[in-house]
Automatic annotation (TrEMBL):
<dbReference type="InterPro" id="IPR052044">
    <property type="entry name" value="PKS_Associated_Protein"/>
</dbReference>
<dbReference type="InterPro" id="IPR014710">
    <property type="entry name" value="RmlC-like_jellyroll"/>
</dbReference>
<protein>
    <recommendedName>
        <fullName>Cupin type-2 domain-containing protein</fullName>
    </recommendedName>
</protein>
<feature type="domain" description="Cupin type-2">
    <location>
        <begin position="40"/>
        <end position="97"/>
    </location>
</feature>
<dbReference type="Pfam" id="PF07883">
    <property type="entry name" value="Cupin_2"/>
</dbReference>
<dbReference type="InterPro" id="IPR011051">
    <property type="entry name" value="RmlC_Cupin_sf"/>
</dbReference>
<dbReference type="InterPro" id="IPR013096">
    <property type="entry name" value="Cupin_2"/>
</dbReference>
Length: 122
């Protein structure tokens, strides 16, 4: 077996599309995904799971119906399950997401082109 460290930030340099998370590792039933984000996403929620955002580079705002949280590089936030939210990045931000395998990025509803294919590894 070959052992190698994973650099989530370096993995973001292997693709350019935005709002399309890519899996870089799994632990039990959880996936570690990286994504490049810019602009507004869609309002959505995940009824059955929390979702963790870790900012690798740039800054991210996560809007809620009753407020918002601002994240800088090196910071993280866990969105509680069932909490409606909408990520926003004024400039491109690189993030790592931690969530159970099979979670759809747009939550419980298909949001067309914003709904990413699951289990795409990089």
């Amino acid at each position: 077996m070959t052992y190698a460290a994973i650099s989530p930030l370096a993995k973001t340099e292997l693709f350019s599309e935005q709002w399309q998370p890519k899996v870089v590792a799994e632990m039990n039933d959880y996936q570690f995904k990286v994504a490049r984000l810019e602009g507004d996403f869609v309002w959505h929620s995940h009824a059955d799971t929390d979702e963790t955002f870790i900012v690798l580079e740039g800054s991210l705002r996560i809007d809620f119906r009753d407020g918002a949280v601002e994240l800088a590089a090196g910071e993280m936030f866990v969105v509680p399950k069932g909490k409606e939210h909408k990520p926003f990045a004024a400039k491109e931000v690189k993030v790592m997401l931690i969530e159970p395998r099979g979670v759809v990025n747009t939550g419980d509803e298909d949001q067309g082109e914003r709904t990413a294919q699951n289990d795409v590894w990089i």
